[in-house]
Amino acid sequence: KKKKKRNAKDPNYIEAFEKLKKLISSHPILRYPNFDKPFTLTTDASNYAIGAVLSQEGHPICYISRTLNNHEKNYSATDKEFLAILWSVNYLRPYLYGRKFTIFTDLQPIKFLHSKYKGKDMSPRHQRWLLKLGEYDFNVEYLKGKENQVADFLSRIETYLEANQQNSEDNRSSSKILENLEDNASVTTIHSAEEDLHDHFYIKEEIVNKYKMQIILTNNKTEELKILHRKMIIFVAEGDFEEMGNIFKRFITKGKIGIYSEISDHNYNKVQEKLIEMFSNDKQIQFTKCTLRAQDIETEVEAVKQISFYHVRESMHSGILETYNQMRNKIYFPKLMELIQIVINQCDLCQEIKYDRKPIKLKLSLTEAPTEKNEIIHVDTYIMKGNHFQQLFSKFGAAYPLSDRNHITII
């Protein structure tokens, strides 16, 4: 009843609460993502926590939340809402990166902060955060606070560390959680308040072959280690996950390391977490996930064959730069550009047909002036209008119809 406090220890109330938790965290309310449909991200922030829900067509995909640390609690309301967007987008990166999605927030200024960016009118913090969000394709829409119920609830979960230390078992029970909710108190969220926003590797749309050290995650492993073109290639299969730590410990050294994955995102995240666990404190090691892997060409002879075939059959005798741009993500050889230049310069057809792109420029000189009529005549052909003659001496123009455009007829 209204203004009447519910008894959180009532068995019927506890049963209803457990049933509600089960309903919102299972099918058909909670669904698997469909990557052919657009995602919607709804965020909210309070004075002590931030939360978000990822959904499609009104059905949630997952719920996330975390508490704010002492520094973040001093942020303004705008900064807290902005932080909720930044953290949730980075946390849900595997779902959102490379896809267009919509963000709903109940703070109107955030919408204009994204759409009307002017560096001179923004704080350095906002500029940094906008740059981090620049790699995503999204729109920001305003959602009234009373309609933003799910994300609002997730952001209202407060830490209660002292109670957890005194009686952790009671805090885990449903009755204790219900009591805390009734008293507008707090329970600990899944994510730590000190959680780092950068808990993933950066993704680049480039080939992994150019890195001196490469990690290839594949299901078709034929060898563990390969040295090619002074580059170390480490192959890891799903069956190596138990020994994954020993493999990385043996081979990985300082420097930039490229990762290419052919396995599922779930298993890739396991590898990523293991690498973060082992090397997060080593600032001399930097991991980057690459979206492409080119075919490694071992010999120069094979590279020339590939270039010649592509130049004649695929690119139809394109130029050097165009051929290189089309081939650099398909095959990898250290001196690919030089070999392409040699092959095209030795192509007989290209030398016969293509014009000189850098001809010798003639010095400016006076045009020869005629002394009599019909000494110099300019001729041009106009379709439907016959043949047009103009005398340079008299500037007299005349047009005559032609039966055909044969050069004998014209002359």
Automatic annotation (TrEMBL):
Keywords: Endonuclease, Hydrolase, Nuclease, Nucleotidyltransferase, RNA-directed DNA polymerase, Transferase. It comes from the Eukaryota. Residues 310-354 form the Integrase zinc-binding domain. GO terms for molecular function: endonuclease activity; hydrolase activity; RNA-directed DNA polymerase activity. It holds the Pfam family Integrase_H2C2. Residues 34-136 form the Reverse transcriptase RNase H-like domain. Its EC number is 2.7.7.49. It is an enzyme of class 2 (transferase). PANTHER family: PROTEIN CBG26694, PROTEIN NYNRIN-LIKE. This is RNA-directed DNA polymerase. It comes from Ceratitis capitata (Mediterranean fruit fly).
